[in-house]
């Protein structure tokens, strides 16, 4: 498995976490049927990894994250989840990594969890939701957290979640189908146009799902950026080229062609989106990705794995 894929968009759940989410009123995860809550275990995940040729999966918690409505409960849940993820990594050090969850919007608790997760548990980075209770990535209320992550040049894995007002915005469809893609764009657009992308340029940010609609918005965003005489930031495409992008979801030829307009191939990373994506769909998406011609003639597997090793500081 020394030349196998590195999966940076891989999830786990625990029974306690699922029950906590349901108790908090999130019985239908982001509008999906209640039965869609996936149960995770390392053995099943490793079986899939072996089938798919995945050498290492960096585990993270997906939406809705650890903040389910109560600050104190979020603090305790983040600690429990992060210790579980670190435990999986200890049991399978060659196969699993871990992105830690933070109990935002509680800034003090999040700063404490950053120190514990990165310094004590050895997490590979942190996972942030696109918003927490309407507080987005560039919001000044969480500025100390971004300053600390920037100081550490931390890897930050971004994951979409439901937005405030999703009841109307999602039109009754499951939010992961449409709204998640726009929610990712919403927080990245704000991150760039607010100047946060320049302020926190040492963050190593992973944008999910092949950038979603961001390639199609780049020119329109640049038009509006230049209409503001007070905006002295760099061109939008330059900012977009400062991020990494995982290929979870529908990373087919049209999406990758669009993504190439805002990102170089050395910024692209593999993502399976397991366990929220069933194994058969993971294997099918990977087969489709293998068929897409890489601009350099290399294989996507080798290219994304090299990029992930560099990002995560893994030995060749």
TrEMBL record:
Reactions the enzyme catalyzes: 6-methylsalicylate + H(+) = 3-methylphenol + CO2
Q: What is its EC number?
A: 4.1.1.52
The EC class name is: lyase
For the Amidohydrolase-related domain, which residue ranges apply? 6-296
Gene3D superfamilies, per the entry: Metal-dependent hydrolases
Q: Alphabetically list the UniProt keywords.
A: Lyase, Metal-binding, Zinc
Q: Which Pfam families match?
A: Amidohydro_2 (PF04909)
The source's domain of life comes to: Bacteria
Name recorded for this polypeptide = 6-methylsalicylate decarboxylase
Q: Which species does the entry assign this protein to? A: Nocardia callitridis
């Amino acid at each position: 498995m020394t030349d196998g894929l590195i999966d940076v968009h891989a999830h786990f759940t625990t029974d306690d976490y699922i029950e906590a989410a349901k108790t908090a009123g999130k019985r239908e995860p982001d509008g999906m049927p209640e039965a869609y809550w996936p149960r995770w275990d390392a053995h099943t995940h490793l079986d899939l990894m072996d089938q798919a040729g995945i050498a290492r999966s960096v585990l993270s918690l997906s939406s809705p994250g650890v903040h389910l409505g109560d600050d104190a409960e979020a603090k305790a849940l983040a600690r429990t989840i992060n210790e579980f993820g670190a435990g999986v990594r200890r049991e399978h050090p060659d196969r699993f990594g871990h992105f830690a969850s933070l109990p935002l919007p509680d800034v003090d608790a999040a700063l404490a969890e950053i120190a514990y997760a990165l310094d004590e548990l050895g997490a590979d980075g942190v996972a942030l939701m696109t918003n927490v209770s309407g507080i987005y990535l560039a919001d000044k209320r969480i500025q100390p957290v971004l300053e600390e992550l920037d100081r550490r040049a931390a890897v930050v894995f971004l994951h979409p979640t439901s937005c405030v007002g999703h009841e109307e915005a999602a039109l009754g469809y499951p939010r992961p189908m449409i709204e998640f893609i726009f929610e990712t764009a919403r927080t990245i657009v704000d991150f760039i146009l607010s100047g946060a992308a320049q302020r926190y340029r040492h963050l190593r940010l992973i944008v999910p799902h092949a950038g979603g609609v961001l390639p199609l918005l780049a020119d329109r965003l640049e038009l509006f950026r230049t209409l503001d005489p007070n905006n002295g930031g760099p061109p939008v495409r330059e900012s977009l080229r400062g991020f990494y992008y995982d290929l979870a979801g529908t990373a087919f030829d049209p999406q990758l062609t669009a993504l190439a307009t805002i990102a170089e191939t050395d910024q692209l990373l593999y993502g399976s989106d397991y366990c929220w994506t069933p194994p058969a769909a993971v294997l099918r998406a990977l087969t489709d990705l293998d068929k897409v011609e890489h601009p350099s003639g290399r294989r996507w597997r080798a290219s994304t794995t090299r990029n992930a090793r560099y990002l995560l500081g893994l030995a060749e």
